[in-house]
UniProtKB/TrEMBL annotation:
KW Cell inner membrane (keyword) present: no
Domain HhH-GPD, chain residue ranges per copy: 35-194
GO molecular function per UniProt: 4 iron, 4 sulfur cluster binding; catalytic activity; metal ion binding
Name the UniProt record assigns to this protein: HhH-GPD domain-containing protein
Keywords: 4Fe-4S, Iron, Iron-sulfur, Metal-binding
Keyword Iron-sulfur: yes
Domain of life assignment: Bacteria
Pfam families (UniProt xref): HhH-GPD
GO BP terms, alphabetized: base-excision repair
Protein source organism: Candidatus Raymondbacteria bacterium RIFOXYD12_FULL_49_13
Length: 216
């Protein structure tokens, strides 16, 4: 039976280093984590590009910009009105709790910071854990829809498992390693996009085909 470390090695050999998460600063990664909710990454890239074009991708500018104007710039990401408020909510949290310093925030204990992030309106477990892993270099495994789909189809998880249960499942079976968690999440995303699709899965050419119990 396939194991979690074994699947990692197989996918790592197939794809190589994925170089994920794309972002040049902590702030860009955090904004991307919020914008990617319920949309494709290609749409996030367009929204990030707009923020950069108008020099809005800074804490100073995001503090003062009106939600309505911010929403116009992030429109390609979808749900732009809600996401503009979520970005502003995060900035308020950062200023209130960590004196506006991403560096100070990133140095906070992982469990405490995760609990605090989850208290921000619009920040759920996947977004919080993406911020922890990619922006703060915390060893936290990120679970997404691809994770649930792939590993339930392989017979390793139940499809209705909770987010936290799936996270514990992975973290229990792997060493706590930021680089490995980062790469594994990227590998899962690639398999989900390329092969293990919700509709029209490509089982015949999937690198996990021989390990998978599911037939699409």
């Amino acid at each position: 039976m396939a194991t979690i470390p074994g699947i990692y090695r197989l996918l790592n050999a197939w794809y190589g280093d994925c170089g994920w998460w794309p972002g040049h600063s902590r702030l860009e990664i955090i904004i991307g984590a919020i914008l990617t909710q319920n949309t494709a990454w290609s749409n996030v890239e367009k929204a990030i590009a707009s923020l950069k074009q108008y020099r809005l991708l800074s804490l100073a500018r995001l503090r003062v910009i009106l939600c309505a104007r911010l929403a116009r710039h992030i429109r390609p990401s979808g749900y732009f009105n809600q996401k503009s408020k979520r970005i502003k909510n995060f900035i308020t949290f950062l200023d209130t709790r960590y004196r506006g310093s991403l560096r100070v925030m990133a140095a906070a204990p992982t469990a405490d910071l995760r609990e605090q992030l989850l208290c921000i309106n619009g920040i759920g477990p996947e977004t919080a854990d993406s911020i922890l892993l990619y922006a703060c270099d915390k060893p936290v495994f990120v679970v997404d829809a691809y994770t649930r789909r792939i590993f339930s189809r392989m017979g390793l998880l139940k499809e209705d498992e909770t987010y936290d249960a799936i996270q514990r499942f992975f973290e229990k079976r792997m060493r706590s390693d930021i680089r490995v968690y980062n790469q594994y999440h990227a590998l899962i995303v690639n398999v989900g996009k390329d092969f293990c699709r919700k509709l029209d899965p490509r089982c015949g050419t999937c690198p996990l085909g021989k390990e998978c119990a599911w037939q699409g």
